[in-house]
Amino acid sequence: MGRKAKERSIEWEKERVKEAERERIRKEWEQSQEKELLDFKGILNKAERYHQTQMIRNYINAFKEYSVKTGIMNEEIDIWINWAQKMQIGMTPSLKGQMSC
Question: Does 100 reside within a domain?
Answer without folding.
Answer: no
